[in-house]
Every structure is written in C-alpha cells, then in structure tokens.
UniProtKB/TrEMBL annotation:
PANTHER family: DUF5655 DOMAIN-CONTAINING PROTEIN, SLL5132 PROTEIN. The lineage of its organism: Bacteria, Pseudomonadati, Pseudomonadota, Betaproteobacteria, Burkholderiales. Residues 235-355 form the GmrSD restriction endonucleases C-terminal domain. This is Uncharacterized protein DUF1524. It comes from the Bacteria. It holds the Pfam family GmrSD_C.
C-alpha cells in the first residue's frame, strides 16, 4: 500500500512526446483517490480522508482472511476507476496561455498522431453547447462547491455510477449526475426533514421528499447564515445556464460562463451602507433574493457599496462576456430594468430563483 502511495501512475507517453505534459491538473490527489476506489469496491461507509488511508486498508483488505483475493480485486478496481476517472471526470486544463475546465479523452488517429478531444463529442474540442459541455458544467459546479481534497462525495458518487454502468453514454451519465446533484441539494441542504447522509444517497439510492421550495421552512434554510453549502448557489447557476441554453435565450455571458472558486456570500444591498444610505431591514437584507456568491477579494472590496456601484464595477467584466455567477448576473439585469434594488426587486428575484428550483424538482420526479 505504501508503494502505491509513493509511486502514483506516470503520465501517458507516446514515443518521445509526453502527451499529458502538465497540461491537466487533477481534482484530487492519488492517496485520496485510493480511498474512493476502496469505498466503491467494498460498498462500506469508508471515510474519504487520506489520514485514515492505511488504517482503512488494513481493516478492509490487508488484515482480513481473504487478503490476497481482496488485494487482487482492489488492483482491478483501481485500474478500472483510473480509466473512468481519466475519461469522464473534469480536469483543469492549461493550454494556449489560458486555463479552463475540460472533459476530454485521448484520441489516437494513428501511431504518430494523437490529440485530446471532448469525451462525448466526435473529433471536437471545447465549445459552449452539447451534452459534453453540460456534463462539464455540472461536474465543475459540484467541484467548486467542495474544493478540498478530502470528502469529495460528488466525485465518489460520479465514480460509483460510472463503475456500475454496463456502458457509459452521455445521456445516462448526465442523468445520473443530475439526480446526484438533486439528492445533495434537495435531500440534504434544503431538506425540511432530517438531512440525508451522503452514503445513503449514493449507495442506498435515498431520494428526497422535498416537493417544492416555496415553503417557509425551506426559506429559512436559504437565509444568510443558514445556507449549509455553496452548492445551492452553484447548482442554481447550473440550472440558469441550462435554462438559457435550452430556451435559446442565453447571451454570450451565459453561454461562456464558467464555474470558479467563489466562496463569499455577498449581500447585494449591503449590510452596512455607506454615505448615509438607509438600512434595508433584516426581513429583506438576509433573504436569498439579496444574496449571491463572489470571490473573497471582491467581497472585501465591494461589501459596503450600493447595488448600483456594484453593478458598475461588474459592467466591464460583463462587456467582456464574463461574470462571477449567473445569479448575480440575473440580479444586475433585474436592476437594469427597474432602475433600483430594494425590497420589491429582492422579493421578485427570489421568487424567480425558487421557481427555477421548483421546475427542476418536477423535472427530477419525471426523469
């Protein structure tokens, strides 16, 4: 086991050229990946924390009565999971002086010609539409919501589904990932009952009882200070992106949107207004309709600015087809129409965002 940890798989090579040549960055390290494989193989609720790696392997493989067979089974599972990981899990790609999320596979044209193309698109690379892009968007939404190397339950769920598929195709994989995301959001983070455990959702296929989000107890879980995980914001952004693409209403800002590590929950109307502006009042200030994700540095800089000043700050990025989050973009567009941002706009925006969740819940029931 220590040998596996100390000697992770080398980069793929062809002739004298290194195909992966630091072009891709993985979302996880090798020691934590080993725990994911062990959990999938055993079906047990094994902690996804590499500090427990050796202890878990001793307990489940090395010090059992069938140590040799279980070791062989694990090696086979490791090879299978590594192949699935390389083909169907996002990575950060560094190419042509830019970095971005990618979902690509290595394609061999002949012994002297190979390249990386989209996993689910024939002979295509990148692009802002199609099933490959949709899978990439959902995987990146899940990843940026849990950026640590340990306890990546979304990755465990994705690999578990891939491991047990007879044949991987884009439509089925996307459907499994969307179900997984719904379980996390509606079965755990917005649940009005006891939140489901990750193991129950992934390995025991526990669903969610939430019928719609427009209810008081759910609203309480969406208030500032009560939001358990940023996946609520990021999954909403994914749904807004899908809505724009499907309805063909997406402008270039929406089409080219990419998830990034935005961790600060921002009040669009500030908690502590400057220059004598009025306090909004607690009943509106902390509502979901007044909240969005931005980077920590921008939160520190813009926190006390008025909504119009914040909008002006983001205008340059929007003109460059860029925005921190799509929920923020929706808030800015709403203010452009009304000319202001106050209780009425907050309530209307929140109603619109909750209706996006409600539509997704109904869609999940029908899937």
């Amino acid at each position: 086991m220590q040998y596996l940890i100390d000697t992770p798989p080398p980069s793929a090579q062809s002739g004298e050229a290194t195909l992966s040549a630091e072009r891709f960055n993985s979302v996880i390290n090798f020691s934590n990946f080993l725990l994911h494989v062990l959990r999938i193989l055993s079906g047990k609720d094994i902690p996804l924390d590499d500090k427990q790696l050796l202890a878990q392997f001793e307990h489940h493989i090395l010090k059992t009565d069938e140590a040799i067979k279980k070791t062989q089974d694990f090696i086979f599972a490791l090879l299978k999971c590594k192949y699935l990981f390389d083909q169907y899990i996002i990575k950060r790609e560094f190419a042509q002086n830019e970095d971005k999320w990618s979902l690509k596979r290595l394609h061999f044209y002949n012994v002297k010609s190979q390249s990386y193309i989209n996993t689910f698109d024939r002979d295509e690379e990148d692009g802002f539409e199609g099933t490959n892009r949709r899978i990439l968007m959902l995987l990146s939404a899940l990843h940026v919501s849990t950026p640590t190397l340990v306890y990546k339950h979304w990755l465990n769920g994705a690999l578990y589904e891939l491991f047990h598929m007879q044949e991987v195709n884009a439509r089925h994989y996307l459907g499994r990932l969307e179900r997984l995301a719904r379980q996390f959001v509606y079965g755990r983070f917005l649940s009005v009952d006891k939140p489901a455990e990750y193991y129950e959702m992934i390995y025991q296929n526990r669903g969610y009882a939430l019928a719609h989000v427009e209810q008081a107890r759910v609203a309480e879980r969406l208030e500032f200070g009560s939001i358990e995980n940023n996946l609520i914001f990021n999954y909403l952004d994914y749904l807004l992106w899908c809505e724009g693409i499907e309805n063909k209403t997406a402008d270039d800002v929406i089409k080219q949107f990419e998830f990034s590590f935005r961790s600060s929950v921002e009040h669009f109307y500030p908690q502590h207004p400057m220059d004598g502006h009025i306090d909004l009042g607690q009943e509106h200030l902390h509502r979901f309709g007044n909240l969005c994700l931005i980077s920590h540095s921008k939160n520190s800089r813009l926190s006390n600015f008025q909504p119009k000043a914040k909008r002006d700050h983001f205008k340059a990025a929007i003109n460059n087809k860029n925005i921190d989050t799509l929920k923020l973009y929706s808030m800015i567009k709403s203010m452009d129409v009304s000319g202001e941002w106050g209780p009425d706009q907050i309530q209307e925006h929140e109603k619109n965002m909750l209706s996006v969740f409600d539509h997704d819940i109904k869609r999940g029931v029908q899937a």
